Amino acid sequence: MLRIAPTFTVATPTTLAEALALKATHGEKAALVAGGTDFVPNLKHGLHAPEVVISLGGLDELRGLDFGAETIALGALVGIHTLATDARIASVLPSLATAAGLIAGPQLRRMGTLGGNVCLDTRCVYINQSESWRSALGYCLKKDGDTCHVTVTGKKCVAAASNDTAPVLLSLGACVELASPRGVRTLPLEQFYVHDGARNTVLAADEILVRVLVPRPRETRRMAFEKLRVRGAIDFPLLNLALAFDLDADGVLTAPELVISAIAARPRRVRALPEGLLTDALVDRIAALAFDATRPLTNINADVEWRRDMVPVLVRRAFAAARGPQSPPFAC
């Protein structure tokens, strides 16, 4: 049985100001925890060695859901279960509700938080193992070693992003609000992630994610989320994608957004997507572009060719889901 080594203290601030002061004092030696659904197992595996663990569970000011006329503000401590079951989320941001409902299982969804999922650490078959397993292999670039066992010659970690909310939020043009003793900064979620599995966000040592801001979608906006995994529950994604587009009364698709994740250290937007009458041919073109843009690696324990072959399948499923069960077939 893996156990947590008692090498750290736990701080329980009750205000954001207290939490920020603790983070500023301890910097990289401090770890933030909310639901702990990913952090605690990684702690048992020896992937983290903090001196102080700052529990954010008492910060009620980060639990708000604010549905404004132009922006929907989601507090970092809003629960995954809430995102999956709140009727307002399902109505206005259905792809986010779908993604949240596919995270882990019901017990973990009741513990996990939006902020924790947005900031979820990357995963790889060579790092998410016990200390003895990793030491026998000589460790890796992400922790304690100097070799990437996926790319062998590469000098940048390629552990994969596995957070299901991230591609959805990117497809919806979301921003994140980051607080520190220096003030608050807001930046597009696309700029929050970087292409390095060892540390795939720009979150500074003294910063805390406090809110996610999502532009309120237009009435014509359609959206969907699809996830590939071995089992129908619990598992991290082998591949996931989020789709969003505008569809007018004449069936013309505009402003498409397609984001694919679980293939690299950050979610990837498929760019230069075509617009036009929503037909099977248009969907096939977008599916082909997504296939061409996707190059899975052996960082996840699943066949890479199968994962890539599933990309156009998930794209077609996403289009069908976005149009809804009552929608007519694609125009010919």
List keywords for this structure.
12 helices; disordered C terminus; Uridine Diphospho-n-acetylenolpyruvylglucosamine Reductase, domain 3; alpha+beta; Enolase-like, domain 1; five-stranded antiparallel β-sheet; 332 residues
Care to give the gist of this entry?
The protein has helices at residues 16-26, 39-44, 80-85, 87-92, 94-101, 106-111, 114-118, 131-137, 165-171, 189-192, 280-293, 304-323, and strands at residues 9-11, 30-33, 52-55, 65-67, 71-75, 175-180, 183-188, 208-215, 221-228, 239-247, 252-261, 268-269, 276-277. With 332 residues, it is an alpha+beta fold.
- Strand tally is 13
Low-confidence stretches: 328-332
Q: Any idea of the CATH class of the domain at 60-119 and 160-215?
A: Alpha Beta
Q: Biggest sheet, in brief?
A: 5 strands, antiparallel
CATH topology of the domain at 60-119 and 160-215, what is it called? Uridine Diphospho-n-acetylenolpyruvylglucosamine Reductase, domain 3
What would you report as the Rg, rounded to the nearest angstrom? 20 Å
